[in-house]
Write a structure and sequence with these properties.
With 176 residues, the protein is an all-alpha fold. It has helices spanning 3-10, 16-27, 34-43, 48-60, 66-79, 84-93, 98-106, 110-128, 134-144, 149-160, 163-170. It starts with a helix and ends in a 6-residue tail after the last helix.
Length: 176
Amino acid sequence: MSMKEQLKKTGKRLSYEEGLNYSIKLISRYVYTSKQLIDKLNKKNISNNDINKIINYLNKHNLINDYQLAIDYSYELIYRGKGQNYIKDKLFNKGIDKSIINEVIKNINQDDLLSNLENKIKLLINKYHKLDNIKVRVIKNCLSSGYYLTDINKIINKLIKDSKIKEMMEENYDLY
């Protein structure tokens, strides 16, 4: 009988050992933040005291590590072309502590972000080059990916100096 069935039948609290076994089973399949794991354990009717012991045990044995998860996830998002604001939002939604989020964001290589942004803008200019309001479309897309407007404008102005991109943008009268 599974723990879920046991809980439904008896309605009793699960013990520390049962909660720990359940937690290890969960983290063997997916990487959880402390907050996500606490939420899962609360649904299993485990006492708050036992939940704290379980989380402490898992942290002590490095089976869960919010800081490392935040670093790994932020680099995955950077690889997917996302900016700082998007990364902050996703980490916060996963239940990562704000101090960890700020530390991770502070340590992100800004050159990598700007390089990704430049590549993204080049792709978007090529995608939208036959449409009206290229700049507005590019800015909206980059903002929704979590980049700062100042960085977006800086890269666009840098790229406008490139003659090929400048020609493409000048063909469009509704650029600005």
